[in-house]
Amino acid sequence: MNTSNLTASNQDQSLSLYYYDGCPFCQMTLKALEQLKQSAESGDALNVELRHIRRQPQYRTELIKQGGKPQVPCLRIDNANGKTQWLYESRDIISFMRRHALADA
Ligand SMILES: N[C@@H](CCC(=O)N[C@@H](CS)C(=O)NCC(=O)O)C(=O)O
Q1: Which sequence spans correspond to the domains of the chain?
Q2: Of the candidates 72, 92, 80, 91, the residue with the CA atom closest to the CA atom of residue 17
Q3: CB under 6 Å to ligand 1: residues?
Q4: Is 3.40.30.10 the CATH number for 13-103?
């Protein structure tokens, strides 16, 4: 996916990560999230709600219905203007979170 049209702004967006434990791509993404949170620069800027699609099957249902497929990890980006974007691919998610943490830091 071309993510260049995704603006990372911690003022205007709320983020939710759809995942489950046994997925190595999810673990990699969660680890990157933890590292970003621990870095002094990002501080409290990175607030991501974790949505386990196996423990809470309603999240799997909405991932498929709204995101388009059951693949995890997937980052849901809710913008202040009401628009929701679904970002698949761990590499793109990590890159987006990095930009998000740095935005307005
Ligand atoms: N290239 C993807 C691979 C993600 C992936 O393969 N996820 C698996 C779980 S480990 C999955 O969701 N499989 C179910 C599906 O694709 O429908 C990434 O890096 O995020």
Answers
A1: 13-103
A2: 72
A3: 23-25, 69-73, 89-91
A4: yes
